[in-house]
Amino acid sequence: MDLEEVRKALGNNPGLFSSPPEEIGVCIVSDRAIRKINREFLGRDCTTDVMSFRISRKYGEIIISAETAMLNGPLYGKSFVQEIVYLAIHGYLHLKNYRDYTPPEREKMLKLQDEIYAGIDWL
Known about the structure:
Blueprint: H1 3-11, E1 23-29, H2 31-42, E2 50-54, E3 59-65, H3 66-75, H4 80-95, H5 103-118
Parallel strand pairs: 1-3
Antiparallel strand pairs: 2-3
């Protein structure tokens, strides 16, 4: 994966992310690793595409499964890098306290996620 493409997509859009948190770490991991994190921190023994943790007011962490992104990207008409960026946006919205646990919450969050994604300047 070309991480520079991900950095460009997110970094060339300064209005895309607003604080807090002021700093966000993005970790791209395997299905096995995200399943372990999901089980350890959320009590769910399964893989997922993206997880977010608000560590402090100033720092948040987004964890993305590379394997799941690679499988799901083509299903949604996205390249691997585009899917990683899309999932990073999803994780960011969770850091901003958006939830997707009920159908109305999910609809609202996905609509905003799609709007943000559509506004990205891919160069």
